[in-house]
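Subject: Sanity check before I submit

Could someone independently write out the structure tokens for this chain? I want to compare against mine line by line before I put it in a report. The sequence has 427 residues.
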Amino acid sequence: MYIKGAVEGAANTESGSRVFVYEVVGLRQSEETDKTSYQIRNSGSVFIRVPYNRMNQEMRRITRLGGKIVSIQPLSAVDQLNGKASTSNATSGETANIANGKATPVAEQQANKKDKEGNTMTQAKAKKDAHADVPVNIYRPNAPFVGKCVSNEALVQEGGIGIVQHLKFDISGGDLRYIEGQSIGIIPPGVDKNGKPEKLRLYSIASTRHGDDVDDKTVSLCVRQLEYKHPETGETVYGVCSTHLCFLKPGDEVKITGPVGKEMLLPADPDAKVIMMATGTGIAPMRAYLWRMFKDNERAANPEYQFNGFAWLIFGIPTTPNIIYKQELEEIQQKYPDNFRLTYAISREQKNAQGGRMYIQDRVAEHADELWQLIKEEKTHTYICGLRGMEDGIDAALTAAAAKEGVTWSDYQKNLKKAGRWHVETY
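---
Independent answer below. Compare away.
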């Protein structure tokens, strides 16, 4: 049966919050049943619908009532199996203030950075004084570095969706330095709709600090042409900066600022364990990490850093032709099977456990227990990069895994952030 969680009514409607279904066993029914010597409903399940931002309050309430959470699934997944569930606003007598915890989306505590194409890039705040020696803002918007396009290569194979390009820029004429996990700004030519010069957009760097040619002379980006339908006219709109970049030719000039960012940096420990979750062009920083870890010429250039740990990439894409850097990723997997694990979530080709499309959050849910065990290890760092919204499903899956051990995921995640082991960049 379906019942509303005690806290769902506070969300008013499901449209304002993602809703998940808790399968619970062992709930007691009242104070009177506490006096009995047996569990109530210990042979059956209760299904409780809970909005995302109240997941941990409900988990605490369930624990207080002697229940045990068996599984957590998105409401949409349950709908696929059982038909559309009721959306009535009835609530139980319990209230939301029985617990103080809060399942906070990662982006809620992040500083917003405009990408100037109608979206916002968010980066979690780095700890104060951390990575003080990391280069930042060598070039500013009022005095950008003018580099040149060296190459512009298509990354989407025939039959894929959209345009995604790998761009390499010559930076040998200046002093632009960067390390893996940082971003640079690009200032497109022309003026905006108000007649003012276009402002910069931020892009995650896709190359190691030495550049693709390992000569310290280039920086690379992975760029998807932004394309969407105007909500009123239905006209196809293309992103100004992304279109500019995707159609650059070798020799074309490009205005570069930065670098910026200290949140997505790799740990210096070569024995670290690194979990990477990416969608689409969110693969950019992950490529930089993996090339530094495993590429032969990179390893030769960095004798002080020889990665011996473990890296796991969970990569979400719509179709197989959209697997960016597919050949190189699979070569690394083949060469370092004990150190690198590659997992795809191909939404339009693979099915999740409920028969729906396979998204990255479904893969995370599938491997949640294993990921949870890795995350608990002191040497493990987790990186998330891609479209905003992916964090909800990831947090839901890890909430369920942690709950099996009586751990409140949102509280645990806060400690990971304080320790500099949880890294998020979404846009």
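---
OP: Matches mine. For the report I'm noting this point. Residues 23 and 149 are 54 Å apart (CA to CA).
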